[in-house]
Design a protein that fits this description.
single chain; mainly alpha; Growth Hormone, Chain: A; two-stranded antiparallel ribbon; 10 helices; transmembrane helix; MFS_trans_sf; transmembrane
Length: 242
């Protein structure tokens, strides 16, 4: 489950140019997905401080993994920069929530002082982030010099002398979603046997009004941010068409 964070972190760099081509934008414009993802991660930290007080971590991890898998499938099929930015914002939120939930669950399962199991969490994340670029590379679009072209460097390419292969960047993103399926099934099984519906009601009753207010503010901020990105994308599209 923690491998998801490493996969999400490691896949973005090698696939950035292909994602920019998918939405017909430049590299400088698509860079906005990074602050959007960071903003989503920041929101998740505030949300997790409220949600982790409940007892149904297995259920929450199941939901977060499922949402994260769906987001990874949708990202390479985005039709505009605004929608792609919104998906990365949600991805950042799922990453932050999963990060907190996994460490909280590990502390509950292994409360001892020498919790070596927790050390496996960042190791798994780093290892998956190291491997995923090798998975992405065969699916990247590549530029080649046409036979008979009188150039020796790709930096001198034009449409007459070079050609670019079609991008298949959707496949590694789908791979990062499929690989989560066993973990989703496992946590769904445990959450089903956890029988925590009554616990959820008790925990929600103990939530203060201030915590509920914070949640509403966060959700409103997220919706406003996505709306602003979509509106700005429309303005950019109108300027380019004119």
């Amino acid at each position: 489950m923690k491998e998801k964070l490493g996969l999400d972190n490691g896949i973005l760099g090698p696939s950035l140019l292909d994602l920019a081509g998918q939405v017909n934008t430049t590299l400088s414009q698509i860079n906005r997905i990074f602050p959007a993802q960071g903003f989503g991660f920041l929101m998740s930290i505030i949300l997790s401080s409220i949600i982790t007080k409940t007892s149904c971590l297995h259920l929450y991890i199941t939901l977060i993994l499922s949402i994260g898998a769906i987001i990874n499938i949708l990202i390479p099929f985005s039709t505009s920069l605004g929608w792609m930015t919104g998906l990365f914002l949600l991805q950042g939120c799922t990453k932050g929530l999963l990060d907190t939930f996994v460490y909280t669950l590990c502390l509950r399962l292994f409360p001892g002082e020498h919790n070596w199991q927790m050390l496996c969490i960042p190791i798994a994340e780093a290892f998956s982030a190291f491997l995923i670029p090798f998975v992405v590379k065969p699916f990247q679009s590549q530029m080649f010099i046409k036979s008979g072209a009188n150039i020796t460097s790709l930096s001198n390419c034009t449409t007459d002398t070079c050609y670019v292969t079609a991008s298949r960047i959707a496949y590694p993103y789908m791979f990062t979603a499929i690989i989560l399926f066993p973990a989703i099934c496992a946590f769904a099984y445990y959450s089903f046997h956890e029988k925590c519906s009554n616990k959820l009601e008790e925990e929600y009753d103990r939530m203060s009004d201030s915590q509920t207010c914070i949640t509403e503010v966060i959700l409103f901020s997220a919706i406003s941010f996505i709306h602003w990105l979509h509106k700005k994308q429309n303005i950019i599209a109108e300027d380019e068409s004119s």
